[in-house]
């Protein structure tokens, strides 16, 4: 991923910044600037998600691309935020611990690094709620 | 008066026992653990570093008291393990808590006392009226060369303190420092691990500077050790803070709540600040806390802190973030091989 692309996504990756439609209340992550339900009646504003949710489904990555190789095996899940949207993210736990319905919350972690001298990328992963 | 408005701590969940490190190097675990007074130390996850620890500690501070982050005028992160040689940890922390862009930020380095140096800077900025709030963080994923004495204690963790004058939970009555050029510990640019100057570690380093700052504090404020409910001294191991407490006239009961090193290890820039946080976790209004940090190189910062009624008021929710005791509970133990992987000590091709 290029430096510029990651920098553009920092608000979403660091703070789960999405949007919501003030007309119907629907929330969007990644952010949308247009509400598909309300269309021209919609009023879309910024919304920061609180980062709690549950695991909808999951898999365990054992063979990863070079950037994530040092982290294998790791759990990758679709997490449904309590506020609505679903996103794909890592869940920080042992592969045998994850289950569908697991309650999770956001955690700030290093996502990857671009070579030994390149930039470090940070963002949101999820940890089990204890 | 300027004081601590809120605070938060983060400690990774992994631990390695001292006996496991000693096993790998063929050392006598009982002698080492007994000599240091440390049983185990925290280990970062593979995707944790000083930036992630600082962000989690800062968020825990804000969970206890959701101040207006736009009024946060400064973020200082003290560490000797900043992930970048050039690019501030503090900028990422500021962005991750939503405090950017109208703030100043910088990284500090002063071995184990860079965090308290940040506290002093924020005190000055807030008390002078330049800003409403300032945040000082001390965090490290401390480095110790394989087989070196430092490897038995070099741990991971951090604490964030927000300073301000609005209804602080603890007022800082006074601070003073004691600094000299002492070669007790260093890491040269580009080197992966620090080195230590052997005989300079104890008397010429830790004890001279901690006592220098502490005695200055007692003289400046006109107090005696028995005037304080609690005391926190930098804890590179369990022996040094207990010994210096005795030398200064503080009791074991006074330092007990903040003495977390036997179960945590030395979190370097986080060490004395996590000790202070553990003390604030159990402190009551009116309690007076004596804090003295130490950083090799060398220097000490001392603080006279007095807990206010705000710690038990509606503006501050101590239980909204995990206490140091809760962060130390239920650890996941790793063996040396996994520890080496987590710390990046295994060279990958």
Task: Give a summary of the structure in a few sentences.
The complex is a heterodimer of chains A (130) and B (349). With 130 residues, chain A is mostly beta strands.
Strand and helix map with partners:
The complex is a heterodimer of chains A (130) and B (349).
Chain A lengths: L2 H6 L1 H6 L1 E5 L5 E2 L15 E5 L3 E10 L12 E8 L4 E6 L11 E11 L6 E9 L2
Chain B lengths: L2 E8 L3 E4 H8 L3 H8 L3 E4 L6 H15 L7 E7 L10 H8 L7 E5 L5 H14 L5 E9 L14 E9 L5 E10 L5 E2 L8 E2 L4 H21 L8 E4 L5 H10 L3 H4 L5 H4 L6 H10 L7 E5 L6 E9 L16 H5 L3 E2 L2 H7 L7
Parallel strand pairs in B: 2-14, 4-5, 4-6, 11-12
Antiparallel strand pairs in B: 1-7, 1-8, 2-3, 6-7, 8-13, 9-10, 12-13
Mean pLDDT of chain B: 96
CATH class of the largest domain in chain B: Alpha Beta
Q: Judging by the overall fold, what is the CATH architecture of the largest domain in chain B?
A: 3-Layer(aba) Sandwich
Distance between the termini of chain A: 33 Å
Through-space gap between termini of chain B: 55 Å
Number of strands of chain A: 8
Helix/strand-derived category of chain B reads: alpha/beta
SSE order of chain A in H/E notation?
A: HHEEEEEEEE
Q: Would you identify the CATH architecture of one domain in chain A?
A: Beta Barrel
Gross geometry of chain B:
globular
In CATH, the topology of the largest domain in chain B is named: Peroxisomal Thiolase, Chain A, domain 1
């Amino acid at each position: 991923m290029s430096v510029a692309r990651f920098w553009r996504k920092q608000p979403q990756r660091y703070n789960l910044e999405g949007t919501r439609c003030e007309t119907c209340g629907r929330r969007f992550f990644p952010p949308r600037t247009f509400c598909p339900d309300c269309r021209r009646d919609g009023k879309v504003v910024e919304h920061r998600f609180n980062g709690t949710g549950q695991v909808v489904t999951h898999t365990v990555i054992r063979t990863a691309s070079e950037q994530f190789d040092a982290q294998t095996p790791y759990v990758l899940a679709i997490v449904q935020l309590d506020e609505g949207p679903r996103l794909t993210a890592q869940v920080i736990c042992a592969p045998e611990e994850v289950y569908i319905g697991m309650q999770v919350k956001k955690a700030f972690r290093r996502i990857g690094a671009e070579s030994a001298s390149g930039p470090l990328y940070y963002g949101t992963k999820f940890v089990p709620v204890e | 008066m300027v004081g601590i408005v809120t605070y938060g701590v983060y400690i990774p969940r992994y631990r390695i026992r001292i006996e496991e490190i000693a096993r790998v190097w063929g050392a006598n675990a009982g002698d080492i653990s007994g000599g240091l007074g440390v049983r185990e130390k925290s280990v970062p996850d593979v995707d944790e570093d000083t930036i992630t620890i600082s962000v989690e500690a800062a968020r825990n501070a804000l969970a206890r008291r959701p101040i207006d982050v736009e009024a946060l005028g400064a973020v200082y992160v003290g560490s000797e393990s900043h992930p970048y040689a050039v690019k501030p940890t503090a900028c990422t922390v500021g962005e991750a808590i939503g405090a950017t862009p109208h703030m100043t930020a910088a990284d500090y380095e002063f071995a184990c006392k860079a965090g308290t140096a940040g506290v002093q800077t924020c005190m000055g900025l807030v008390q002078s009226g330049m800003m409403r709030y300032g945040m000082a963080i001390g965090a490290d994923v401390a480095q110790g060369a394989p087989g070196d004495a430092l490897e038995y204690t070099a741990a991971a963790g951090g604490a964030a303190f927000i300073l301000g004058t609005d209804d602080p939970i603890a007022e800082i009555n006074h601070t003073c420092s004691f600094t000299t050029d002492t070669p007790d510990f260093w890491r040269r640019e580009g080197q992966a691990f620090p080195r230590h100057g052997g005989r300079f570690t104890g008397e010429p380093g830790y004890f001279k500077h901690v006592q220098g700052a502490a005695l200055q504090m007692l003289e400046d404020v006109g107090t005696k050790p028995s005037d304080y409910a609690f005391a926190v001294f930098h804890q590179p191991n369990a022996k040094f803070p207990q010994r210096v407490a005795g030398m200064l006239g503080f009791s074991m009961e006074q330092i007990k709540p903040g003495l977390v090193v036997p179960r945590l290890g030395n979190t370097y820039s986080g060490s004395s600040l996590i000790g202070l946080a553990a003390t604030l976790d159990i402190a009551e209004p009116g309690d007076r806390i004596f804090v003295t940090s130490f950083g090799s190189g060398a220097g000490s910062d001392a603080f006279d802190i007095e807990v206010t009624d705000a710690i038990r008021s509606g503006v501050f929710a101590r239980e909204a973030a995990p206490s140091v005791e809760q962060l130390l509970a239920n650890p996941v133990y790793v063996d040396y091989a996994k520890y080496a992987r987590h710390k990046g000590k295994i060279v990958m091709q």
